[in-house]
């Protein structure tokens, strides 16, 4: 029996006892959250996509993508939540002895000191005001949630790069090039920190007064498709992840798209994330224009 087939059988068993399995807390939180919001899970399908395999002596290490598709009924309407999650399985002989799934990968604490960012300089030099086209931004987000636009560089940790592309597709004005610590921009094979780093974009949105600007609001339900949510999973003041709002559910709450662990129409709170902690903090930004 191949190891890939064993993983397939493993996940079939998990899905068969979806509402009482305890092996994957994140998945239990996902399905419990659907019920708690008054929605109904109508169908869940999955696929296994191995992408790296190392064998040594009698041990085998397999890394794979677990793709989930959840058809959810919310009020009178159905929507499809989709996501790719990173699995890591280790076998001794034919026995699976260590297995974990990471629903999120982010830059986290790799940046050990604050970036010297300048987002508000030259206030007297006005940029031409642009109108933010939310429909085009959302259209872009749904077009590229599961792939990568070759016009831009892609990254292993791609969440903020993806969000920036979505905003830019809506017509937001870039500025600050070629200084990477200023403004929000992409071009000529380089980019600002705020274009690609989660923590830098959060600070940009909180302080910019020209070009791309945003207004912070106090709750997720105040957001509309085309807006941004920033996540500080540990609650330590450094933001790890950003998502892009693409629609609202029947309760008026945001559903988001994201990269890194590529997701579409995921519930905004990320309580089903392996990165979630009780100390999580959010920032909610409405894009101006």
Main sheet makeup: 10 strands, antiparallel
- Total number of β-strand segments? 12
The share of residues in helices is 10-25%
The N- to C-terminal Cα distance equals: 57 Å
Count every helix, treating DSSP H or I runs of 4 or more residues as helices: 6
Q: Uncertain spans, ≥5 residues at pLDDT below 50?
A: 109-114
Please tell me how large the radius of gyration is. 20 Å
| Derived structural class | alpha+beta
| Number of structural units classed as domains | 2
CATH class of the largest domain: Alpha Beta
Q: What proportion strand? A: 25-35%
Could you give the order of the helices and strands? HHEEEEHHEEHHEEEEEE
CATH topology of the largest domain: endopeptidase fold (from Nostoc punctiforme)
Averaging pLDDT over every residue, what do you get? 92
CATH architecture of the largest domain: Alpha-Beta Complex
CA-based shape: globular
Question: Strands, helices and their partners?
Answer:
Layout: H1 3-16, H2 25-36, E1 40-56, E2 59-74, E3 77-92, E4 95-102, H3 134-144, H4 159-169, E5 186-187, E6 190-191, H5 193-196, H6 198-207, E7 214-217, E8 228-232, E9 241-248, E10 254-258, E11 263-267, E12 281-287
């Amino acid at each position: 029996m191949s190891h890939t087939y064993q993983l397939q059988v493993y996940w079939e068993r998990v899905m068969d006892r979806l509402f009482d399995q305890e092996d994957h807390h994140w998945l239990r939180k996902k399905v419990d959250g659907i019920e708690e919001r008054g929605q109904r899970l109508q169908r869940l399908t999955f696929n296994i996509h191995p992408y790296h395999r190392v064998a040594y002596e009698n041990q085998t290490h397999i890394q794979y993508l677990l793709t989930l598709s959840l058809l959810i009924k919310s009020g009178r309407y159905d929507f499809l939540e989709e996501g790719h999650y990173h699995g890591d399985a280790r076998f001794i002989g034919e026995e699976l002895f260590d297995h974990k799934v990471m629903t999120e990968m982010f830059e986290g604490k790799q940046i050990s000191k604050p970036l010297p960012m300048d987002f508000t300089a030259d206030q007297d030099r006005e940029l031409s005001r642009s109108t933010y086209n939310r429909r085009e931004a959302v259209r872009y987000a749904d077009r590229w949630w599961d792939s990568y636009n070759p016009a831009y560089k892609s990254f292993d940790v791609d969440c903020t790069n993806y969000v920036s592309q979505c905003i830019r597709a809506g017509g937001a004005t870039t500025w600050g090039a070629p200084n990477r610590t200023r403004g929000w921009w992409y071009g000529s094979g380089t980019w600002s920190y705020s274009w690609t780093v989660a923590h830098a974009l959060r600070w940009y949105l909180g302080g910019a007064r020209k070009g791309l600007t945003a207004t912070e609001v106090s709750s997720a339900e105040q957001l509309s498709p085309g807006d941004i949510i920033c996540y500080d999973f540990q609650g330590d003041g450094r933001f790890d992840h950003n998502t892009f709002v693409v629609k609202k559910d029947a309760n008026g709450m945001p559903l988001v798209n994201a990269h890194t662990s590529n997701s579409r129409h995921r519930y905004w709170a990320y309580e089903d994330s392996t990165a979630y902690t009780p100390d999580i903090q959010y920032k909610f930004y409405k894009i101006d224009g």
